């Protein structure tokens, strides 16, 4: 195994033990990026000089015996919605040409305090308004989509051109690309990770979180972002895992269903108790999330859209214009539905500790494919398919973790989504880690 393929926890431990130097790690990851980027295009910009300078500074601190932080010397990719002082935040859009951030976002500041090194900005679908990330290719199969909108972050982690990365998630934008690229994606509880200095898509649905290679890596990254340390272990006795009887297993690729149900059976074999559950208020989940997102995104972009509509991509401009046609009544009804959904889901989590479901209903589609035809003849857009199973955790604000649990016949990764009650990230990580360690 080459150095860029080691996990965050492995690299962090080796650096702290002085078995590896930050300079070695950063150089190796930069070399990997130089080799993979021509095909992958995960990054909008790489700050190689800045990363090497920071690595040398970390090396000097460690050599002097100073505490350089738990992530000292670890190179991280930052989604290009998140401000890094003095660097452009392009948000994947011509609207942001010439922009430079005046100060670090809260999450970048936290990562710097932990010793991490900002390697560069990863590609995003324009203003995070899409589930494809057209600039970037899938790290497992370059003919397939990377997923979005944090596609650059997920592809970079999967390819080893970032040890871990930050993404944002408004309707699945961390979990979808994590599942499609075979890595781990954590959307924390709403507002657990601060959003200051992060370009908004929909302020009441937006989340910031890590994309990593392993569940243990996600726990370490989350602790750096929040200061909360999870006591990780893999004993699942007493953990009630809810298996949905409705919604999550509707319109699903049979290979995805088999892999997810096999993962659920593995959790039972590890000591968890399986509980069949009915998902409440399913008819409101995607419509309420969509109305809120459309309205808030259009409000955020209102002035820029009037002044420079031609600088937006056609797909995003159309969505923003559509959102501008929504009235206050539709938005308020969406928020009322959200309140009722959240109350109903809170009741669900008195019966179970974790909900286990597919992350997405189908693996990474070929680049250019716009729709999926299900066996019953129903046609669904790729974007709608990818958002359908992830949107509920954004609408409720509940934490959700996507972990890889297998491959389809084309060797494309399949993701299991674990959803919990607010601020139960430690439970999700415990369940995910137990499966990860049991299956390798």
TrEMBL record:
Stored Gene3D superfamilies: Amidase signature (AS) domain (3.90.1300.10)
Coiled-coil parts of chain: none
UniProt cross-references to PROSITE patterns, sorted A to Z: AMIDASES (PS00571)
Pfam families the record matches: Amidase (PF01425)
Domain of life: Bacteria
Family: Belongs to the amidase family.
Full protein name: Aspartyl-tRNA(Asn)/glutamyl-tRNA(Gln) amidotransferase subunit A
Organism (species): Micromonospora echinospora (Micromonospora purpurea)
